Amino acid sequence: MVLVMFLIGLLAVAFIAALVAFVPAQSLPVVLIFAGAILFAQFFFSDKIATFAMGAREVQPNDSREAEALHAMVERLCAMADMPKPRVAIAETSVPNAFATGRNPNNAVICVTTGLLHNSTLNRDELEGVLAHELSHVAHRDVMVITIASFLGILAGLVARMAFWFGLGGDRRDNRDDGVPVQLIIMLVSVVTYAISFLLIRALSRYREFAADRAGALLTGQPMALASALGKITGDMAKIPQQDLRAAEPFNAFYFAPAFTRDSAMALLSTHPATEKRIEQLYKINAQLGGPAAPEVHGHRH
Description:
Elements: H1 2-22, H2 28-54, E1 56-58, H3 65-81, E2 87-91, E3 98-101, E4 109-113, H4 114-117, H5 124-139, H6 142-149, H7 151-166, E5 173-174, E6 180-181, H8 182-220, H9 223-237, H10 242-248, H11 275-288, E7 296-297, E8 300-301
Parallel strand pairs: 2-4
Antiparallel strand pairs: 1-2, 3-4, 5-6, 7-8
């Protein structure tokens, strides 16, 4: 995570230097104001945006027995983690999953889908493992970290669009490149910066999923329950209609386990590590806690 954040910072310095060199002084503040406004909205309204987009509704303990049980689990885990209890929401979707959002523990929401709540294959320990994973995201302020790290990509994408539509750089040409239009240079630099930033953010997201798995497993003291939940939820994804998975895909960055259609799983572009690697890490944590390590089959660990 430190390496990825360093690379994002290095990329940001290079991109800002390019902006200063090629974008006219009168246009630069406009670009920064637009990008800052987008960052502000993402940072302060991430919880409302995510829950609204998912069609989730906030629930109180007295709304139903289901809501009461969910609140009790979250409250117990928050007491164990010594952290404020987030708001609790339920989203109506058949995709078995959960997510947490909010810029800090005092403004967080943890959301569970009806597909997960009504999943008869998950026991209480496994559901607690999923909730502990999501609460770890809240405690680690992952939404804030990813939002700030994403600012460079937002800025680069915005600059590329403005260069295309409004001609940043005007009709000026760069004498060092035999008259190449500055507008084209700005667009190329922005597109390359956006692409690299996109891949780095995905890598950062995968590392933070590993961190949330580890923290969630240590909080409950039951890594194998979390590993079992991962395996069951990932397996259940194959039974979900493809149209439901496609509808859920845009929210994969939030989810406990990504909702992939059969033709969309690409490791480099994924916001989550491979399920097998996550389960392998949980086996190692289980061994550290005194439990059995991953079983060996024909000389190979599984």
